[in-house]
């Protein structure tokens, strides 16, 4: 399965920048805009690591035993039957997402993972950066901002 690489779009970065800078004078402040039209972004491409994320997505899809649809249906079944969600299952799911529906399933799995692991203090999986890269790649700014603002998931 090949994934077409496209140039990254800075919409999520702009959303994050405007959200962060809202208390510092807003997005229109002179410290964030150049009179020549150049823009500064909160995160650079080296920080976002989108290409490495896309390469990992291809590797995970290739090494998956079975099909993506089977994997997703197994996870949905685990959610409905209140079975344990493992860290590797969450990580694999985040690498397999390709649509808005997949991301919605991932959000449900994230909340479930949090409920199961909220009392664990050592070794919890920090899925936030991976979810943000996924939202950045799929242009789902609203899902990214919703997860950032969620006070329940603040430590993940």
UniProtKB/TrEMBL annotation:
User: Could you tell me which InterPro entries the record lists for this protein?
Assistant: PTCD2 (IPR034629)
Its BP terms in the Gene Ontology are: mitochondrion organization; regulation of mRNA processing
From which domain of life does this come? Eukaryota
MF terms from GO for this chain are:
RNA binding
Its GO CC terms are: mitochondrion
Q: Do you know which PANTHER family this protein is assigned to? A: PENTATRICOPEPTIDE REPEAT-CONTAINING PROTEIN 2, MITOCHONDRIAL
Q: What name goes with this protein?
A: Pentatricopeptide repeat domain 2
Q: Which organism is it from?
A: Pipistrellus kuhlii
């Amino acid at each position: 399965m090949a994934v077409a690489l496209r140039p990254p779009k800075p919409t999520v970065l702009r959303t994050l920048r405007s959200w962060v800078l809202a208390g510092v004078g807003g997005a229109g402040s002179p410290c964030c805009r150049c009179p020549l039209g150049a823009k500064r972004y909160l995160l650079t491409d080296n920080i976002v690591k989108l290409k490495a994320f896309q390469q990992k997505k291809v590797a995970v899809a290739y090494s998956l035993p079975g099909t993506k649809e089977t994997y997703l249906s197994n996870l949905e079944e685990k959610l409905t039957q209140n079975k344990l969600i493992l860290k590797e299952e969450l990580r694999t799911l985040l690498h397999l997402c390709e649509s808005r529906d997949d991301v919605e399933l991932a959000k449900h799995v994230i909340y479930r993972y949090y409920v199961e692991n909220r009392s664990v203090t050592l070794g919890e999986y920090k899925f936030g950066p991976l979810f943000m890269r996924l939202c950045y790649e799929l242009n789902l700014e609203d899902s990214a901002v919703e997860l950032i603002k969620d006070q329940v998931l603040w430590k993940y």
